[in-house]
Amino acid sequence: MAMNNQDIIILFYLGLSPDHKGRKIEEIWEWDHDRLEYTHDYNELRTSAIALDVRF
Fold first, then answer.
1. In a domain, 32, yes or no
2. Higher local confidence (pLDDT), 21 or 53
3. Quick check: is 41 in a domain?
4. 44 lies in some domain
5. CA torsion angle 20 24 30 35 (round to 10)
6. Residues 6+ apart with CB under 8 A from 35
7. What pLDDT is stored for residue 1 in this prediction?
8. Which of 4, 24, 35, 39 is placed for a possible disulfide with 31 were both Cys, Cβ 3.0 to 4.6 Å?
9. pLDDT, tens digit, for every residue of 1-44?
């Protein structure tokens, strides 16, 4: 069975699945401010979760 976008986002935020670049959420949490500013694609998952009204 194929997963939908909401399932993918939830698994990522639960730490059970990496993002589209193979990064786990725990890795992104360890980034410093400069890396967060430089790397914009991590924010796509955050924005998608908000758009889908995913609550944790």
1. yes
2. 21
3. yes
4. yes
5. -10
6. none
7. 64
8. 35
9. 677 878 888 888 899 999 888 989 899 899 998 988 888 776 56
Question: Which of 34, 35, 52 minimizes the C-alpha distance to 44?
Answer: 52
What's the distance, CA 47 to chain centroid? 9
Please give the Cα distance from 32 to 52 (Å, whole number): 27
Q: Which domain holds residue 40?
A: 5-51
Cβ count near 23 (within 10 Å): 16
How many domains does the chain contain in total?
1
Does residue 56 belong to any structural domain of this protein?
A: no
Alpha carbons 45 and 5: distance in angstroms, whole number: 10
pTM above 0.85?
no
